[in-house]
Write a structure and sequence with these properties.
The chain is mainly alpha-helical and about 140 residues long. The protein has two domains: about 1-30, no CATH class; about 35-135, lambda repressor-like DNA-binding domains (434 Repressor (Amino-terminal Domain), Orthogonal Bundle). It is built from nine helices and no strands. The two termini are about 30 Å apart.
């Protein structure tokens, strides 16, 4: 999984101590978050997957999904992002990181729906299998 060289804590510490903001920004250019589409592209490369494979597995509308990857759709919903994460085959830590990266809340086991998603990710279920599990438990599916 793509990771930054410095932790967020390290960046905070450096930033608080830095007197020259421009110098800090220049020095830490590689530590800034990429646009979501570029981050997803890195995940695909890490997992040796194509966009087409992931989009087919995700159940997302093809055009909409390509807009996420291209950056035209900058803030996809949490459920759409989860469908992509499951289709990519991310583990739970990677999913939680992706959700935070995209500005969404992480999966929370005290939330019934989230608990089912966590279980599905841990079981390495597909999007279709995840939807079947959600439906069988009376929860709303990932993509309605």
């Amino acid at each position: 999984m793509f990771k930054f060289a410095k932790s967020t804590g390290e960046l905070f510490t450096e930033l608080k101590e830095e007197k020259n903001l421009q110098s800090w920004r220049t020095h830490n250019r590689d530590e800034f978050a990429l646009p979501l589409g570029e981050y997803l592209e890195k995940l695909l490369a890490d997992k040796n997957l194509t966009k087409q494979e992931v989009i087919e597995r995700s159940g997302l509308n093809r055009e909409y999904a390509y807009h996420i990857f291209s950056g035209k759709k900058k803030n996809p919903s949490r459920t759409k992002l989860l469908a992509l994460a499951v289709a990519i085959g991310l583990n739970l830590d990677e999913v939680q990181y992706l959700l935070r990266y995209a500005g969404h809340g992480v999966l929370y086991p005290r939330n019934s729906w989230d608990a089912v998603i966590i279980s599905a990710i841990e079981q390495r279920l597909s999007v279709m299998q995840t939807n079947e599990l959600l439906h069988s438990l009376g929860e709303s599916i990932l993509l309605a």
